[in-house]
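PROTEIN DESIGN WORKSHEET
SECTION A - STRUCTURE
LENGTH: 54
TOKENS:
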């Protein structure tokens, strides 16, 4: 983490920017994970329904 701070700056503004970027990245990844899990659930549900008709 110290390397990232020194690479992008150590001023208050630079640190706040890094924190915002980290939080946004975390939230986007969490959202993507939820979407992927939901799509897997829907896919499994559709596959089970299709299997009933075959």
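SECTION B - SEQUENCE
RESIDUE ASSIGNMENT:
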């Amino acid at each position: 983490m110290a390397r990232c701070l020194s690479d992008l700056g150590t001023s208050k503004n630079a640190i706040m920017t890094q924190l915002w970027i980290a939080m946004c990245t975390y939230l986007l990844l969490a959202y993507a994970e939820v979407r992927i899990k939901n799509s897997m659930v829907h896919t499994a549900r559709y596959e089970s329904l299709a299997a009933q008709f075959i």
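SECTION C - NOTES
DSSP finds two helices and no strands in the chain.
The mean pLDDT is 81.
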